[in-house]
Amino acid sequence: MAERIFAGKIALAGNPNVGKSTVFNALTHLHQHTGNWTGKTITCANGIVRWNGKTFCLVDLPGTYALHSHVAEEDAAREFLQSNTADCIIIVVDATCLERNLIFTLQILSMTQRAVLCLNLMDEARKKSISIDVPALEKRLGIPVVPCTAATGKGLDHLMETVETLVENNSIKTTDQKNVTEFPPLSSFVHAAEQIAVETVTVDARIPDRDRKIDAILTSRRYGIPIMLALIALVFFLTITGANVPSEWLSYLLFACAQPLNDLITWLGAPEWLRAMLIDGGWNVLASVVSVMLPPMAIFFPLFTCLEDIGYLPRIAFNLDHVFCKARTCGKQVLTLCMGLGCNAAGVVGCRIIDSERDRMIAILTNTMVPCNGRFPAIISLITLFIVGTTQSSAKTFLLAAISLTCVVIVGVFMTLVASWLLSKTILKGMPSAFFLELPPYRRPQVGKIIVRSLRDRTMFVLLRAVCVAAPAGLLIWCIGNIQVGSDTLLTIFAGALDPFARYIGLDGMILLAFILGFPANEIVIPLVLMGYLSSGTLVEINQLSDLAVLLAQNGWTSVTAVCFILFSLFHWPCSTTCLTIRKETGSTKWMLIGMILPTLFGVTLCFIVHSISVLL
Ligand SMILES: Nc1nc2c(ncn2[C@@H]2O[C@H](COP(=O)(O)OP(=O)(O)OP(=O)(O)O)[C@@H](O)[C@H]2O)c(=O)[nH]1
Ligand SMILES: [Mg+2]
């Protein structure tokens, strides 16, 4: 039914990282994620293009190297193309490496001629002094060729005009070749692609290869890892420095709203218990989550996306590949860990880029050992208070905090390696698969788009999720903090029951209870601890880190408690969204449970060791 209203269905196909999603976004005005590395898109996305009074359905397919290939992430694209449901296929190719892209193009053309070649990245080709004889290419391929620069939208109108003509002209033949086994051998496509490239592409050989020179430093054995660590520390330094003041402002502003809201609820005639529950419970937790989380996320995500757009993420994977191979797992896991830094659920889904089933499972089960953004703010606060040991806002404090945070991430990655090695020696036996990692060209980041995209799609998404979870969790903890059983509240009874065990691992009952109640979202753990410490079950206004320091010290916190908290925050069961995502991605509750138990065992063991050493000392 829905199909009938469209003038045609158009598919965007091509090799990975050639700009398909960028074309898709420009034509549909949607916001499909783009990124300068292969495998950014892993599922098909649909959008609508309005052109010349007509409406077309546009499908963005994951990148595919060849229709022969058997990579899981490419299945969706292959199945779609072989189903022959598109009225026209826009084959997007990278003008800077046409020959390689032509292999896939020729495979598509052996199935259908209802295609247009979108010769994308023409700006980069021009910079590299690559020129392409477009009429000759059209003649050789037998389909229209449209040069484009999708990043600026140049050429896309012409592309749509060509597509429209093609869709209207239904007579163009399509070969009913649905089974890849019927294809001629890959070598024949490779040979033909080489021939066509020789005839149509000219390159000025005098232009030096800038990317190779940069890679000689950034991916070298000697400098690669130190530069990588310095860059990560720089991102954390900028995040911590920039987030400090806005966090305080937001906190003042949001807690200041509590009084008028209080008055409003009283004026509406609500009973006291309802007022207390909504304001002292829901609003105050919400205010604290937003003020603690929003500023660092609003800085971290754009900076991280910038590294992604420049093309640095695959270089990180390249630098760490040999380390991951030693742990008997695959270097592509590093890319999924990078995705996990933002949100572990996204990291788990991102594991689809790993081809081998065994390696993918290892990557999924260990993904939560890098801290997601829900855990960063609490870790940063505790580092500043207990490890750096001062709340004074100076460059030195921020630098020390950034270096400590980098060390926390290193611990996370190290334990990921340990866990991967253990898994590959036990329940996921085997050797790491060989894989093909493409280092994309360095590209200038599109700063404006990065800011909009990371604020809207990432920051707001994570924040909204936290808010949706924080307010109800605040209500719940208020309730258990105020329901009396005998002379104690439910909160003190639960925390008291957990206390003996928690003390063994350097925590206390309230902290452990907060981790348990924080299952829906990690970002609410610290607010829950604070609420628990206040006998009224009400969250007080924490405007400054020094207020937090006083409250924690009053409840017996030392630097050992902070270290154990950070370790347990790094290694414990994933949040509910990530657990559900693990179950969905592995198709099994058993693996989800392993994904919960494994990091928790690590956390308990490490905290126990740290606590025991501190007692001995
Ligand atoms: N300079 C330049 N960069 C472009 C152009 N088109 C896309 N890009 C950049 O190329 C990178 C890859 O773009 P995507 O649209 O994610 O590529 P894709 O083909 O969808 O990639 P996969 O989903 O991994 O297959 C991004 O960093 C884009 O900003 C262009 O015409 N010029
Ligand atoms: Mg894409």
Automatic annotation (TrEMBL):
Keywords: Membrane, Transmembrane, Transmembrane helix. Residues 7-169 form the FeoB-type G domain. PROSITE patterns: G_FEOB (PS51711). GO terms for molecular function: ferrous iron transmembrane transporter activity; GTP binding. The keyword Transmembrane applies. InterPro entries: Fe2_transport_prot_B_C, FeoB_GTPase, G_FEOB_dom, Gate_dom, P-loop_NTPase. The keyword Transmembrane helix applies. The chain crosses the membrane at residues 223-243, 282-304, 375-392, 398-423, 462-483, 489-505, 512-536, 548-571, 591-613. Pfam families: FeoB_C, FeoB_N, Gate. One of its GO terms (cellular component) is plasma membrane. This is FeoB-type G domain-containing protein.
